Amino acid sequence: MSSKDARVSPGGLFHSRRTEYSPETQAFLKDLIRESKLSMFQRRKLQESVNKGEPLPLPPNKPVRSVRTEVEENIKYFACPRRRKKDMISESGAYEREQFIPNYSTRNHDLEKKRLQDFMAFGKIITEDKSKVLAKLKAKQHNKDEIDIMIEKDQRYTETLKEIKERLDFLKFMDEKGEKAEYDHVIKQEIAAKMRQLEDMDEGFRIEQRKEYKEIRDRAALKLYGNLS
């Protein structure tokens, strides 16, 4: 019981023992504080630390002024406004343009439509071989090329019929005016050349064009080989 009630000096982790300065040390510290160039607030703090036996406070940190480094730029200032030469403008980069980079996607929209159709119909995307997809695309392009060729032939056929009809109407008009002899030979040669062009063309045209061709052919044959009366 006596050992438990015995007093022990303060210390440990949370209660550090105070430092006891000797009278000589206190007198020496007072002289240092008095001779040092400290403010009244700093002197009072030091004196309180000495009286309480606490560690002396650290000196205040002096703020370090940041030295701002200015970057020198090579800028030419002109005394007065003046026109610049083309070389100076080119060197400044005024003629340089940023390269355009498109932001649109290069996805195959036909293939995406096919996938959406499969998903809506079967609830899943039906995958196909890449070779089959390429074959379908090539066949579609081939059909498109054939359609373009047929349209071009059709337009050429219609234009040739129109040219023959115009020449026949011109001969009829000149015949009514009594001036057919001046143009008869030349116009007949042109009509014969246009007729040969029609014969060389393909036979796969519309029925309406075949009827028109038959009528114009009969009129042209009458002009070329029959009487003009």
Concise summary:
InterPro entries: UPF0193. With 229 residues, this protein is mainly α.
Task: Provide structural commentary.
The protein is an all-alpha fold and 229 residues long. Among the domains are: 19-50; 149-225, no CATH class. It has eight helices and no strands. The protein has helices at residues 2-5, 23-35, 40-52, 86-91, 109-122, 130-177, 180-200, 207-225. It is elongated. The termini are far apart.
Task: Lay out the secondary structure.
Layout: H1 2-5, H2 23-35, H3 40-52, H4 86-91, H5 109-122, H6 130-177, H7 180-200, H8 207-225
- The Cα radius of gyration reads 54 Å
N-to-C series of helices and strands: HHHHHHHH
Q: Beta-sheet strand percentage?
A: under 5%
Q: Note the main sheet.
A: none
Count of alpha and pi helical runs: 8
Shape: elongated
Distance between the termini: 159 Å
Q: Which bin fits the share of residues in helices?
A: 55-70%
Q: What are the segments in which pLDDT stays under 50 over at least 5 consecutive residues? A: none
Q: Tell me, rounded to a whole number, the average pLDDT.
A: 72
Count of DSSP strands: 0
Summing up helix and strand content along with how strands pair, one would put the structural category as mainly alpha
Oligomer state of the chains in this structure: single chain
